[in-house]
Amino acid sequence: MRLYVILLILMGTLFGVALMIGPAGIAPLDSLHALILGGDGPMTLVMREIRLPRALLALMIGAALGMSGAAMQGYLRNPLADPGLIGVSGSAALGAVIAIQTGIAATTTLALPVSALAGALIGVVLVLMLAGPRGGSLTLILAGIAISALAGALTSLVLNLSPNPFAANDIVFWMMGSLADRSMTHVWLALPLIVVGLGMLALMRRGLDALTLGEDAAQAMGINLVQLRLLLVFGTACVVGASTAVAGAIGFVGLVVPHMLRGWVGARPGRLLWASALGGAVMLLAADIVVRVILPMRDLKLGVVTALVGAPLFLHLIYRTRRGL
Amino acid sequence: MTLLSVEGLAVSLGGRAVLQDVSLTVDKGEVVGLIGPNGAGKTTLMRAILGILPHHGHSSLAQLPPRARGRAAAWMPQSREIAWPVSVETLVALGRTPHLAPGQRASAEDRAAVDHALERMGLQEFRHRIATALSGGEQARVLMARALAQDAPLLMADEPIAGLDPAHQISTMRAFASLAGEGQAVIVSLHDLGLGVRHCTRLIVLDQGRIVADGAPTSVLTPALLRDIFGISAWFETTPQGAVFQPLEVLE
User: Fold this and answer.
1) Domains of chain A with CATH codes
2) Which tens digits make up the pLDDT trace of A1-44?
3) From the CA of A287, how many Å to the nearest CA of chain B?
4) Per-residue pLDDT, A109
């Protein structure tokens, strides 16, 4: 319980900080005034159309990546599992890359995210067809790896054959993941999917706890493994598909956050779900603040920062685990 | 009272029949030892009875809805899996899963069942220890306590005493006997025929997916059956200290 309170306070604070920083240099009180009470002038526009969507997306996507990471690790009973494992992020990225390459991304704001979502949907259908509706977790991992590899290869092919260096440049930057210049349109596109996805993943709570004893024992205790697997795949597809569609590929959050919080929830995979959602939101809000504070003029990419912070953190965790063995 | 009835159960895996035409009933108060050589189909039979394996034929347990089945029978698989470093208490409390409706929290009754199971396996001092940090034998007892916390009339255990020291082998078999004394029933697969003879009320011998003998230990373990099914000879006598069974030689 205390952990949730601490994480909620941290999240609220970082959300407030995220709203108050930016190149416009608005005083904190003025910015909140403009955000809540509105009024004419550029200040309200900056707050409502630039900073608010950015902070909201960091919160939503962080929560999405954190919880789906916890669900994936719990289901596969492997602390090294990551939400990207079932191929959703790879196929969403492919959809986005095709949209940039063909130029339809430039036609409307929604063209790119919708194309990414279509990619995610195709990816998830292929994974389920390959892995089958029932069966162990191994077939799911193998199907996910196959689809990830295929999506990665096709993404490289698009880059390889790209006749337009500007499009290639756009693709590379987009794939690094960022929350810069997103609008409320992006929020409204991602929000319903993320809410539905988080709801599905949260339903896995008891099943994940029971899976601590293995698939056989969990099944004999009345856990429906087929249903659990569908919740995992569709829940992850919703949250990761939506996240990748609006923000690009942001790595390490889903891997590191559940790992860091596991000790705080007594290693119970069910409890780790919401804790990781809050932790993911905290991590992504913090990373997006870092991006804007450290190199405000250079458009440092969010995915680069999460990887730069995440990798050493992960190495530290591995070191600690090794000592504990 | 009958806790389990199985009629004409058959399982084929990859086109090969691994279980054929198995029929049996288990009543209250029985400790049924399931014996047979490696690959005879013991694990397959228990999993098919639970309905967690595709099968033909009738099993009273497999017909129940999943959670009701979880309240009717507890299952201890042979693989002693503990995936996360949770506390012993948390792990044992997982046994209450089939008793909780979705979203329902553990009640006083659930906590009492967990306490009772910990006490029964002598694990009170281990309550707050991390389950994955225990020795293999201790983990086996913790998993046994988890199955006991499930508080089901029928307990099915797949080689629960493999890898335990002699004292814990005997006390585990005694625990089964005392459960049966309280009106529950136990089906336990075993390789140690000596312990089976002493602690089971009934032995079922499985060979190549069929039941070849079913009855009291003394009537089942005849020299002919030991020769034909297990390929061994044995010394088997009823002594003042109870039935004693000692395998002797491998027969050619």
Assistant:
1) 2-324 (1.10.3470.10)
2) 789 999 999 999 999 999 888 776 777 777 777 777 777 777 78
3) 29
4) 80
Strand, helix or coil for residue B106: coil
Going from the C-alpha of A185 to that of each of A52, A182, A238, A292, B180, the distances in angstroms are: 12, 8, 17, 22, 65
Tokens 């639970």, residue located: B50
Q: Tell me which residue in A211, A219, A266 faces B52 most closely, judged by beta carbons.
A: A219
Which of A1, A77, A134, A213 best probes binding to B when mutated, by most B CB atoms within 10 angstroms?
A: A213
Q: Which amino acid is at A276?
A: S
- Sort out which chain A residues have CB atoms less than 8 A from B50's CB and list them: 220
Report yes or no: A222 and A286 within 8 Å, Cβ to Cβ: no
Q: Please give the share of chain B, as a percent, with pLDDT higher than 90.
A: 80
Written as one letter, the residue type at A22 is G
Helix, strand, coil content of chain B in percent (nearest 5): 40, 30, 30
Predicted confidence at residue B250, as pLDDT, reads 92
E strands of B128-216, at which residues? Answer: 154-158, 185-189, 202-207, 210-215
Beta strands in A63-222 (DSSP E): none
Q: What would the DSSP string read from start to end of A74-96?
A: HHHT-TT--GGGGSHHHHHHHHH
pLDDT digits (tens, 9 = 90+) for A101-158: 888 888 888 888 899 999 999 999 999 888 876 667 888 889 999 999 999 999 999 8
Any A CB within 8 A of B20 CB: no
pTM of the model: 0.90
A230: tokens are: 């569908």
Q: Are A176 and A248 in contact (CB under 8 A)?
A: yes
Q: Which sequence spans correspond to the domains of chain B?
A: 2-250
Rounded distance, CA A152 to CA B241, Å? 70
Secondary-structure class of domain B2-250 per CATH: alpha beta
CA torsion, points B219, B221, B227, B231, in degrees to nearest 10? 160
ipTM: 0.90
